[in-house]
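Example complex used in Figure S2.
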Amino acid sequence: MEACHKLVLLRHGESNYTRDNLFCGFGNDADLSDLGEKEAAVAGQRMLEAGLSFDIAFTSVLKRAVKTLYLVQEELDCHWLPVVKTWRLNERHYGALQGLSKTETAKKYGEQQVKIWRRSYDVRPPPLDKDDSRFCGNIAPYRDFDPTIIPVCESLKDTVERMLPAWHDVIAPDVKAGKRVLIVAHGNSLRGLMKYLKQLSDQEIIRLEIPQGLPLVIELDEDLHPVRDYYLASEEDVKVAKTKVGVKDNVN
Amino acid sequence: MAKVHTVVLVRHGESEYNRDNIFTGWCDPDLTAKGQEEAKDAGKILQEYGFQFDVAYTSVLKRAIKTLYLIQEELDCLWIPVTKTWRLNERHYGKLQGKNKDETIKKYGREQVQLWRRSFKVCPPPLDEKDEHWSGNDKRYSGLSFVPTGESIEEASKRSLPFWHKHIVPALKSGKRPLICGHANTLGSLIKNLDPSSKIDLSDLSLPNALPLVLELDESFLPSQCQFLQHPSGGKLHKKRNCNS
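Predicted assembly (497 residues):
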């Protein structure tokens, strides 16, 4: 089928947590590091060089994504773009692992258990207690949510399932209507979208790495099936960027 | 006690055109470095006073959008939904857009320019489609059936008021705390339009750059009080310039 829509995905730049090798996730609203800000600006420049422009952008409610989008808009000179923020594009919730380093996690739970969390699709990390100060039900923007939908931990499967309504109900209709859409989000929420669009298996999605800061263009046909996808970067750039991913901040 | 709603309005920080004394209107200059600092200061002032927001509204012009972003950054509320609308744009200054104010006065005379700037019903000379500042080809206005060639203060206020009633009042009714980041003429005329009995003295429509204005409304969403929030000086009591007449 012929490609008639272009969707661009971008994983946010390095955060302070990734820089410090800590599990970040849904409940930590980490800021971009200096490098992360540079990565965001470079991503914007890549999109500019590729001649891309947009009609609307979607992002999460986490500042590392919101700021990445802002810095991209600065490069594209499109601050006027409508921006829709949704918690459904947030990063996966890592439960009680939030804020812990990879070393601490291995120490606390054992290497074997960490491997299971990393390599499974539907195994959840230990849940956060609702009395835990890290539980996000007490902070904006989740304070007014129905408490049953605020996660205390998520498997990758859980993340995909809560992300997809954002695609079906909000983003896909805009793409179908011919709007040029940019999504700036997180490793696992974007993997969730890729799994759905490309019909990847549970095993395939675990092996899929989405590097930070490299725009991913997905060309779709009129039924929103992917025709082709490519990074706006050289093969070398993608290779280097992928060495950073999956080691520090993804439990996969 | 009568129910009170609070809205905070802020004019954008200094833009490149403000600095260079140029009529701006729908032109889209950036904030200067000073303007960025002013925006951050506005955020700091709001934080000092303990303000929190659930929703924000701004124009489609970057000087306002960026001011809002910098305020949000200071208040750590980058997550709040932001609605951008051309209805909150600055008044369209027609052919004067992009022109130096002093040179315009030299060319047309002080009285004529004052008439264009301050008279309620007078339109500036209209822009035509061939002018470099014509907005008709700008993608952000592609949804508009009619792109202005210039606006009187009255016309600008007529197109911003519906937005207030359609979006901001319902937000207030649902208990949301809005922040509006906009422009001198349209924010000023918005307040005047809401205040038929002229309780509020804003004789100079030019709001200072990036000075938060706290507008309190009664249960009918009519202004009852407004105050500019000044920067605290040396840790002493915060001075507030009260604009109730």
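Chain A has a mean pLDDT of 91. The longest strand of chain A covers residues 5-11.
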